[in-house]
Amino acid sequence: MSIIFNEKTKTITLHTKNTSYQMKIGNLDYLLHLYYGPSIPDEDMSCLIMQYDRGFSGNPYESRSARTFSLDAQPQEFSTQQQGDFRTSSIEVVNSDGSYSFHGKAVNYKISKGKYQLSTLPSVFAGRDDTADSLEVTLCDVVSNIQVTLLYGVFEEADIITRAVKVTNHGKNPVYLKKIMSMCLDFLNGSDLDLISLPGRYGQERQVERQAMTHHIHNIGSVRGSSSHQQNPFVILCDREAGEDYGRCYGFSLVYSGNFLAEAELDQYDQLRFVMGINPKQFLYELKPGQVFECPEVVMAFTSHGFTALSHLYHDFYRTNLCRSKFVSQVQRPVLINSWEAAFMDFDDVKLVEIAKAAKNMGVDLLVMDDGWFGKRDDDNSGLGDWFVNETKIKCGLHKLVEQINDLGMKFGIWFEPEMVSEDSDLYRAHPDWAMEIPGRHAVRSRNQIALDMSRRDVQDYLIEKVNAILDDANIYYVKWDINRSLADIWSNALPPEKQGEVYHRYVLGLYRVMDKIILTHPDILFEGCSGGGGRYDPAMLSYYPQYWVSDNNNPIDRLKLHYGTSFVYPTCTMGAHISDSGRFVPLETKAVVAMCGTFGYELDATHLSKEELAICKEQSQRFRKYYHITFKGDFYRLTNPFQMGNMTAWQHVTKDKKESLLSVVVTNLTCNGPQEYIRAKGLDADAFYSINGGPQIRSGSSLMNAGIPINREVPEYSAFQFHLVRQDEA
Ligand code: DGJ
């Protein structure tokens, strides 16, 4: 059992292979946080906590004349409200008498085998061979009878601990939740920690930023209704000197697709509090007697060995314990061609078949019909919501079109944007009240579309019926599920005024219900997520979709940063990456090398390619398949940082047994007559010998990792190289 309760010391210690995490039912039954880091035995770590009379930091009433116990200075497992702790709170409740107060004390705990379940939200699961245990600790406020149950999932071999929270109203009156975080982690000293986040914007998602902790609340979050392009629900806290290969790193990854918040507060005593959960902005959730509120899960990982080791923990875990789709591991992902940058909305069935015929010669497996096939949809001002085939464009009908593609020996995929409606659509004309618009006010338009009120059951049922009807009508192999605006005008016509503070979260719950009923009922369809590129690239979405479109920005040089940042937490096999016409001066080979970092495909008008180009693409598709077992199942290494001035960006995939590796390099900037550059490999067997691209030269793993590979500098700008390293077992 990886969870141990010590009766004598009242400590609860969680152990994974390389880490330990400890809390204690401490003074006055407050639940204190004692430790998270490299493995320790079950010793009581409360010796770390010193108690002083801290001026202006109050003491709970029950501590009587003892002035040294202040919650303002104690490390807590889930901070309380109005108990003299002035740091950021984990919970804010408005009680039925109007008071803002929650005094949570530990009342019981439960340890069980297996992973706890959340019933309304996606969460990670334990595989058949995983050792997973769960802990529940319940905190109760005896006046209001509000109970907060802290949930912990301990994945021993994976070195992962998950956290979530359930709030239950056992009182007699309704209360309102104003803020409820999924986790709180108090560090006894955080002044030497840095915070790394993945901010961005449309077309430039998940760039990497690092900031030192100073004495205020560092706040990372989204209030756009989705996890967003602008921030990602992933944060690292690490040693100031931590790098790819060394340093303590704590990772926090929230399994949620709506508004989120991560706060890191360095307090007056250099303690650091970190909380993460649903963003409290415009959040006010009524909890009636007997009702339970579930908070989304945070997946935590710790390593002392730097960012690469932290990424590997997440990559391995998210590859096996997040998404149940058979496309995660049982079925190889297809090479696809997408119609978007080939034709935008200007296509018909004949054009699509022409593209497919040309793509067949490129070794492509799957044609994806993107936006423009339904309702009245010739531009982005109309049609959303009308999920029936536009037969002036698809004249032969969907069934026949799919048959024609299948007859070429190719599979067929289709695009949807279920959550949106155009004012110029049959759906909006029939149900204007289904759109998110505040009565008496004009809605904010974005791409000239309005969000549907996904919190409504009737809206959810309409979408489930319409999308499923299309998926069941033809032989659909793949679906791209898009969303192209942020939410504004948060309002539901189906809810009374006092419940409008629930709409942001109910939208997300409604979306998950729709996804359950469409995605989980079609296990043979490969689903790819998209949000105007990568605007909702989060673990909750990845629990449904094995792959997600990284960005609408297909420029391969920009993609180097996009892939780099995304890879800090998400495995590269989730990264939708295509070759398109974007980046005109970048050679086709470089585009292929970059797209092979992810799921690989094309997004261009194949009918315009020359015979030679078609043949080049065919070889690229074959190469992607040849290296698939390395890039989809191997360990990923960031060899250089594209955000730093350098001449090359390099990365590497290595099979788990270290027998094979694919090392990729893009030359981004070579100065005239400059020095020779070497790329040092990682993750190889130092004592083994490797061939390079099947050539006669054999080099030791040690020399490849320590001396590196010389990169030819007499090459055109933006050239790329791939080095396929194969271990020579007989050497
Ligand atoms: C945004 C996506 O990111 C694009 O790939 C494309 O599907 C368009 N939406 C279609 O409207």
Structure notes:
By secondary structure, the chain is an alpha+beta fold. It folds into 3 domains: 3-321, Distorted Sandwich (Beta-galactosidase, Chain A, domain 5), CATH 2.70.98.60; 326-636, Aldolase class I (TIM Barrel, Alpha-Beta Barrel); 639-730, Immunoglobulin-like (Sandwich). Strands 6, 7, 8, 9, 11, 12, 14, 15, 19 and 20 form a 10-stranded antiparallel β-sheet that branches. Strands 29-28-27-26-23-22-21-31-30 form a 9-stranded parallel β-sheet. A hairpin with a 5-residue loop joins β3 and β4 (31-38). α6 packs parallel to α7 and α9 (556-566) packs parallel to α10 (588-595). It is globular, with a radius of gyration of 27 Å. It binds (2R,3S,4R,5S)-2-(hydroxymethyl)piperidine-3,4,5-triol. The site of (2R,3S,4R,5S)-2-(hydroxymethyl)piperidine-3,4,5-triol (DGJ) has 11 residues, from loops.
Total count of helical runs of at least 4 residues: 12
Radius of gyration: 27 Å
Q: Any idea of the CATH class of the largest domain?
A: Mainly Beta
What is the CATH homology-level superfamily of the largest domain? alpha-galactosidase from lactobacil brevis
Strand and helix map with partners:
Blueprint: E1 3-6, E2 11-15, E3 19-25, E4 31-38, E5 91-94, E6 105-113, E7 132-141, E8 146-155, E9 160-169, E10 175-187, E11 193-197, E12 209-212, E13 217-222, E14 234-239, E15 249-254, E16 260-266, E17 272-278, E18 285-287, E19 292-294, E20 298-303, H1 306-320, E21 336-338, H2 340-343, H3 349-360, E22 366-369, H4 398-407, E23 411-416, E24 420-421, H5 426-430, E25 450-451, H6 457-473, E26 478-481, H7 503-519, E27 526-529, H8 539-542, E28 547-549, H9 556-566, E29 575-576, E30 579-580, H10 588-595, E31 601-603, H11 611-631, E32 635-638, E33 648-654, E34 660-667, E35 677-679, E36 689-692, E37 698-700, H12 701-706, E38 709-711, E39 720-727
Parallel strand pairs: 21-22, 21-31, 22-23, 23-26, 26-27, 27-28, 28-29, 30-31
Antiparallel strand pairs: 1-2, 2-3, 3-4, 5-10, 6-7, 7-8, 8-9, 9-19, 9-20, 10-17, 10-18, 11-12, 11-14, 13-16, 14-15, 15-20, 16-17, 24-25, 32-33, 33-34, 34-39, 35-38, 36-37, 36-39
Helix pairs in contact: 6-7, 9-10
This protein binds (2R,3S,4R,5S)-2-(hydroxymethyl)piperidine-3,4,5-triol (DGJ).
